[in-house]
Amino acid sequence: MGLPDASRESFLTALRKIFPGERLLCGRETIAPYECDALPVYCERPLAVALAASEEEVASALRLCHQFGVPLVSRGAGTGLSAGAKPMAQGLLLVTAPMNRILDLDPQAMTARVQPGVINQQISTAAAPLGLYYAPDPSSQIACSIGGNVAENAGGVHCLKYGVTVHNVLSVRLVSASAECVGEILTLGGDCLSQPGYDLLALVHGSEGGLGVITEVTVKLTPIPEQTRTLMADFASVRAAADAVSAIVRAGVIPAALEMMDKLAISATEAFCHAGYDLEAAAILLIDLDGHPQEVDVELAVVEQVLKVSGATRVQRAADDGQRARWWKGRKSAFPAIGRLSPDYYCIDGTVPRHRIGEVLEATERFSEKYGLRVANVFHAGDGNLHPIIMFDGSEPDALARTEKLAADILEYCIAVGGTITGEHGVGLEKINQMAVQFNDAELEQFRAIKRALDPSGLLNPDKQIPTLARCQEYRALRRSGD
Ligand SMILES: Cc1cc2nc3c(=O)[nH]c(=O)nc-3n(C[C@H](O)[C@H](O)[C@H](O)COP(=O)(O)OP(=O)(O)OC[C@H]3O[C@@H](n4cnc5c(N)ncnc54)[C@H](O)[C@@H]3O)c2cc1C
């Protein structure tokens, strides 16, 4: 239910005062690009889109939404893959992308203080002359914003060694929606590694726009490693490649990156950008080792040995930076490359204990056959973070429904082997049903209690991430009935 006409006009008039001129979009055409994130199966036209330029504007917008009871969905760059930034029909979409200034780079403290709309990769680009970079590197890093990274607790290729977003953020400024302090600014975290009291900084990571609006982030910067060497290993079976992943870590080496691609992903990528992958391989591992040159040499020898013992049919060292760049370009282009194989694709994001990867990939193959849909796998193997990419044709009447069932089967298999339904893409709308499988009622009630404490009016990104009790019961009953 939306606002009555008169209230809607008053709301929009007040909003125009906060966001003058073209920074408030209400027309059908100007709003169209904001109707979905990178998961376009969920799409909705909001009441209005506000392009925020400052923390004060964000706070004023939040107060106004509170006054009128209008839901507010935050959006960064809109690259999310779980419909977290999908607007609400009667709500305001508040875009923080225009808040895109790097406010401070401190080489002594090794930190960067940035506005939420700063693009992930721009932090590393700006810090490079200081010999520093920002470690978490989602494959979408040329487009996604740091505010969105915090809200989703984003990961990336190099997070195995350097941690995901929460491990690389020192503090966040958040506009509050909680009862007595709507629109007030909270500083979560600080300059030191730990703070007294509840860890609200950790809480906001992965909060998906449901606990406040992020207006500033101070990230840790990491020294650019003296040397990085890359290995590529080919395998004749997916299981052997998966088992090698655990064996490397068991051998005492934490690679900077440890990624896996299966045959379908290899062939799609090779056709797309000629990365130099072996088209005969059933799977490949791409491995970065970084650090001091002597340390890297030792680790290279250990990992090569482990790969051979694990059954690699070929192990290559990148001969130079050019070859390294080509191999990684292939990995980073895998999504668009796979996108060329079918009219539509759907990328899911489950995480499993590393030693269960092989088993889950084999189960995925069985599910793929059951639903008659092809699945390619390209993922952060070192983290056990799987990204099965389901290919389908949305113009076929039941294709999306089959895709969603296949996705549900894979995610619930991840839970069954001790894993989770998301490693980095968040729950959003996409995985809200699986929350009912991942958590029991008592656990979900704790999430709801936290949400009620920090957003008592339930205006921030409602109906996402945390399912209602009724929805949980309905979904569990459906799954029990075998549907
Ligand atoms: C090709 C491709 C590859 C990808 N690879 C990866 C990967 O390797 N690792 C990974 O983690 N993700 C990956 N993603 C997913 C996506 O890029 C990340 O989830 C990213 O963190 C989203 O950032 P964004 O700025 O686009 O956020 P959006 O999509 O705009 O929003 C995402 C969520 O954050 C909330 N949000 C955004 N800004 C704010 C704010 N200022 N305050 C409060 N809440 C906010 C939104 O409400 C929403 O719930 C990939 C996506 C694509 C399309």
In the CATH scheme, the class of the largest domain would be Alpha Beta
Question: Quick one: how many beta strands?
Answer: 20
Percent in helix: 25-40%
Low-confidence stretches: none
Number of domains: 4
In CATH terms, what is the architecture of the largest domain? 2-Layer Sandwich
Keywords: FAD, Flavoprotein, Oxidoreductase
Protein name: FAD-binding protein
InterPro entries: FAD-bd_oxidored_4_C, FAD-bd_PCMH, FAD-bd_PCMH-like_sf, FAD-bd_PCMH_sub2, FAD-linked_Oxase-like_C, FAD-linked_OxidoTrans_Type4, Oxid_FAD_bind_N, Vanillyl_alc_oxidase_C-sub2
Pfam family, one: FAD-oxidase_C
Secondary structure elements and their pairing?
Layout: H1 5-18, E1 24-25, H2 28-31, E2 48-51, H3 55-68, E3 72-75, E4 92-95, E5 102-106, E6 111-114, H4 120-127, E7 132-133, H5 146-152, H6 159-162, E8 169-175, E9 185-189, H7 200-204, E10 213-220, E11 222-223, E12 227-235, H8 238-250, E13 257-262, H9 263-273, E14 283-291, H10 293-309, E15 314-317, H11 321-332, H12 334-339, E16 344-347, E17 350-351, H13 357-371, E18 375-379, E19 385-386, E20 388-392, H14 399-416, H15 435-438, H16 441-454, H17 469-480
Parallel strand pairs: 2-4, 3-4
Antiparallel strand pairs: 1-2, 5-6, 6-10, 7-11, 8-9, 8-10, 12-14, 12-15, 13-14, 13-18, 16-20, 17-19, 18-20
Bound molecules: flavin-adenine dinucleotide.
